[in-house]
Write a structure and sequence with these properties.
With 85 residues, the chain is an all-alpha fold. The chain has one domain. Helices cover 80% and strands 0% of the residues. The protein is built from four helices and no strands. The longest helix is centred in the C-terminal third of the chain and has 32 residues, at 53-84. The N and C termini lie far apart (52 Å).
Length: 85
């Protein structure tokens, strides 16, 4: 059964994402909230107000960082395979 999250907690999470560029996954873990719920709150919040460009910039920065980590791991794994042959 889903538990109710207080309005104050929702607002605090959204504020930290928008103002601080906090990582959604880390906040979800910290507040024991599902990422699906947080993204729904974000979607509803951005529909209610104008889209915050800083929010989009922060999202893109995190995405680039994640992609760089994935590429780095793939390159490392590929080099490791070459050395084993």
């Amino acid at each position: 059964m889903a538990r109710r999250i207080s309005k104050e907690i929702k607002e605090e999470i959204l504020k930290r994402i928008k103002d601080e560029g906090a990582n959604v996954a880390q906040l979800c873990e910290e507040y024991a909230v599902s990422s699906t719920a947080v993204y729904k709150w974000l979607e509803k919040n951005t529909q209610d107000s104008s889209i915050n460009p800083q929010l989009e910039i922060n999202r893109l920065k995190r995405e680039v960082q994640d992609l760089r980590a994935i590429v780095g791991q793939l390159v490392y794994d590929k080099e490791k395979q070459k050395k084993q042959k």
